């Protein structure tokens, strides 16, 4: 028996049976097993791996069923000839992708998005004891069993057509119905099905709208500080990006605002300062937008996490003029890796955005749309929001206290909820340096520089998020941070 | 008891328990149940719906657990106060999306993709007895149990981080590994991980590449006839789209080809004619591309369905120059609704495409990436390809015979495999009219006009696909079609 064929790791994610199957399939398809080579008996394999024979029998049975192995009487198991049809041909020498590469790519690129500054977070953030990082979910709060149950139903035989078909430009009608009936009315918005488009996260909605509405001549406005990914999208399409100031009431109405064709804003919780725009400011913004024919894209992220006041309805709900396009996300309450969001706009805008989405991605994967629709319709989403609300409020209070105690000299822009604090460090602090030093102590924070579009924007702001850190870790983490700031 | 609250449909996809839960959650969240209104007892509800009491008990238990209902001793079930927090406020009158709509949207749009001609297929194609339509999968061939098993594993607690996190610009390393080790070598391509990008279907890869490489001045070449969605993508970016002729060997090398900066081609099975480009033609094309510095996008769709010859390696595998960008899809063998594809390109191109994808969609949903990775690594994908191969080959032969018998006057461009025939009807035939007439007889075909970019392109071509029609239906369907063509 060739021992190297199958290795078992007890602490692996996959079951032992799965690991055995995977190793044998790999060996067959990678051409490591010759046609006439016998496979160890189930007894031998079980003994050599130290697993139960039953586990091996089940793995072998699956491989027999699928034609990878054949059983010969009195002789045991062999690799099937059929399986080798798909295997690598030894006489085929694959060619490296960039072989000669005489191309002058830089001259070919119409844009270089990789050169843009952007938020970067360590992929292994979960291994840090104090991850104050933004936009991830706390796994301990997520109703995994319910989600899996919905996924199981969505993958059911009866719905097979729904999730396997290419549905071209169409969304899952059940998900659209849930957005229309369950999510939008609470934001004060009444939409018909053809005024809603499901997108690959809010990010995709913003990209679609920019492609549709921004040319090289368009003057767009952007909150400063603001969401860097949107500034980056705008910058790919137009050089005319105005950085509009933000104060304690959110986006400030100004002549610079009036001069824009299109403005991006986050009234529920300004990104990244978390301030909520009060009603009077909203009315003023809409009035000025109407007089100067400014279109508004409202990113209503995290509206559901206002712990202090009654949630303010969306800016869109005050819009008499059809000039606010609403963008929402399921990433913050479900999970970001799912990539589900939506936009709400007049029918003719949705029609164009739908045709563009067809060319860009077709549609969000149907299985996920259906799973999310079931999750919403069975009330699990509402249950989850209530649970997040309780957990986040507690963490928000703990963090507020910890900041008051340990970093009294740093001022926090008043935050009404959300999932983070926006902290202004002492003048002269470089939060990029602070973040590096903190990481070595196990504390992850987000330097604020990237949220400013202006050259020479301030470096002393940083963001502390609490959506994926346990209550008990907040105070100790802030204490460590405070020691570093003091030095 | 208010009878209208819960309706049960026996032939629904959802289980009875799910239906009861959904109806009660709806009534609570839509504000149809008052705070103090008692809910019928499980016994009454079971009797009134004619279902087992156990079903109702389980549904109620879930609602108690999630805080939608409260049980009061000796008094029964009531809607919980907490649950109503999220309910619609009766005093909040939602505002319609397009309220006043004084906006001149037409003047705002930078493009109008909805005006482009495109393939349209009836969404209810499965209800037609003879669906000769392209690009859908045959549910009877799909290993649903294996897919569900992989999905279940991918949703497992141990992998929670993998699928819930926003992974920003990164792909699932397990899926990238499977593409690199399992799929690309068979196409003669050797890539490193940073030369592979997972996309939302091949469509998304084509959109990303166009955005990166095509400006208003770029001269792009497109097969004629060819894939309309690519022509449409190109047309959004540049007015300089050359329609390059196709013959029995695929794309024809020509001076028009030499004059392009970038050319899109489908060498494995030309879309829509299904011809395979022979080796000499490939070499000639690459030689001319090198002399005139033409970049090539190779869409290698359906490479695995060549039943007649040994599959020809990808054009990319002959490319010494790094000028061919390879686009692949998992839609044809898994299912199109999943939206998974990939592109292979030099590292610096992938780096830019990845940064652009981050702005456009972030990444393909992580749960689907992981499910597909498991499906590939356990050999289910290879098993499926072998199964499809057998089934499609038989259908291809049956359809070839049926066409020879019933439509001898229509010439078919020789097709080596694929999942469709490209049929040239008699001169003067309008295949759009034929498709309409055929649909009334239960036969769905695809008129070919949309595949031609030229004004005044021919109308007598049509496509007959066999990927989602049962063997036994092929001959009778062609017979009906033949009767219609004769008339």
Question: What's the CATH topology label of the largest domain in chain A?
Answer: Aspartate Aminotransferase, domain 2
Total number of β-strand segments of chain A? Answer: 19
DSSP summary: helix tally of chain A: 17
Q: Biggest interface and which pair forms it?
A: A-B, 150 and 149 residues
Q: State the end-to-end CA separation of chain A.
A: 62 Å
Q: How would a textbook summarize the main sheet of chain A? A: 8 strands, mixed
CATH architecture of the largest domain in chain A: 3-Layer(aba) Sandwich
Describe the model.
2 copies of one chain form a homodimer. In chain A, helix 1 (16-29) packs across helix 3, helix 2 crosses helix 3 and helix 8 runs parallel beside helix 14 (366-377). In chain A, a hairpin with a 3-residue loop joins strand 2 (69-72) and strand 3. Chain A has 487 residues and is of the alpha/beta class. The relative contact order of chain A is 0.12. The radius of gyration of chain A is 27 Å and the shape is globular. The first copy, chain A, is built from 17 helices and 19 strands. Chain A folds into 3 domains: 1-100, Arc Repressor Mutant, subunit A (Orthogonal Bundle), CATH 1.10.10.10; 120-135 and 383-485, Aspartate Aminotransferase, domain 1 (Alpha-Beta Complex), CATH 3.90.1150; 143-378, Type I PLP-dependent aspartate aminotransferase-like (Major domain) (Aspartate Aminotransferase, domain 2). The model of chain A has no long low-confidence stretch (mean pLDDT 87). In chain A, the strands form 4 sheets. An 8-stranded mixed beta sheet of chain A has the order 7-14-13-12-11-8-9-10, with helices on both faces. Chain A has helices at residues 16-29, 42-49, 53-65, 81-85, 105-108, 144-154, 160-164, 173-183, 201-213, 228-237, 255-258, 279-291, 347-360, 366-377, 380-406, 431-440, 471-486; strands at 38-39, 69-72, 76-79, 95-96, 130-131, 189-190, 196-199, 220-224, 241-247, 250-251, 262-265, 295-299, 324-329, 341-344, 411-412, 420-424, 443-444, 446-447, 461-465.
């Amino acid at each position: 028996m060739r021992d190297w064929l199958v290795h078992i790791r007890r602490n692996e994610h996959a079951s032992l049976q799965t690991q055995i199957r995977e190793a044998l399939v790999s060996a067959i398809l990678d051409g490591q097993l010759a046609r006439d080579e016998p496979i160890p008996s189930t007894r031998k394999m079980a003994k050599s791996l130290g697993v139960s024979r039953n586990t091996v029998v089940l793995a072998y049975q699956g491989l027999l069923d699928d034609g990878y192995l054949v059983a010969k009487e009195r002789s045991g198991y062999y690799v099937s000839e059929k399986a080798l049809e798909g295997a690598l041909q030894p006489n085929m020498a694959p060619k490296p992708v960039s072989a000669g590469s005489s191309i002058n790519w830089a001259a070919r690129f119409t844009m270089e998005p990789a050169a843009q500054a952007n938020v970067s977070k360590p992929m292994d953030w979960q291994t840090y004891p104090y991850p104050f990082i933004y936009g991830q979910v706390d796994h301990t709060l997520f109703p995994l069993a319910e989600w899996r149950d919905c996924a199981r139903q969505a993958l059911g035989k009866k719905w097979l057509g729904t999730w396997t078909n290419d549905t071209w430009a169409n969304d899952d009608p059940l998900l659209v119905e849930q957005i229309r009936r369950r999510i939008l009315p609470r934001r004060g918005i009444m939409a018909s099905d053809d005024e809603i488009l499901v997108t690959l996260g809010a990010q995709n909605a913003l990209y679609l709208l920019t492609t549709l509405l921004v040319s090289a001549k368009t003057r767009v406005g952007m909150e400063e500080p603001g969401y860097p990914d949107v500034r980056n999208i705008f910058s790919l399409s137009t050089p005319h990006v105005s950085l509009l100031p933000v104060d304690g009431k959110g986006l400030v109405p100004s002549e610079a605002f009036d001069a824009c064709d299109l403005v991006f804003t986050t009234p529920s919780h300004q990104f990244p300062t978390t301030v909520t725009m009060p009603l009077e400011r909203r009315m003023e913004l809409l009035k000025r937008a109407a007089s100067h024919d400014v279109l508004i894209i409202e990113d209503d992220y995290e509206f559901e996490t206002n712990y202090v006041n009654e949630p303010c309805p969306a800016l869109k709900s005050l819009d008499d003029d059809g000039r606010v396009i609403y963008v929402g996300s399921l990433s913050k309450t479900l999970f970001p890796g799912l990539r589900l969001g939506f936009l709400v706009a007049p029918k003719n805008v949705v029609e164009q955005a739908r045709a563009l989405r067809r060319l860009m991605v077709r549609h969000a994967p149907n299985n996920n749309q259906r799973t999310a629709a079931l999750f919403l319709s069975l009330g699990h989403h509402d249950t989850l929001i209530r649970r997040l609300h309780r957990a986040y409020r507690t963490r928000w209070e703990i963090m507020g206290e910890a900041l008051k105690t340990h970093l009294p000299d740093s001022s926090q822009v008043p935050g009404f909820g959300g999932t983070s604090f926006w902290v202004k460090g002492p003048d002269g602090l470089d939060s990029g340096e602070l973040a590096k030093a903190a990481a070595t102590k196990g504390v992850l924070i987000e330097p604020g520089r990237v949220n400013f579009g202006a050259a020479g924007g301030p470096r002393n702001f940083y963001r502390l998020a609490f959506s994926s850190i346990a209550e008990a870790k907040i105070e100790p983490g802030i204490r460590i941070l405070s020691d570093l700031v003091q030095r």
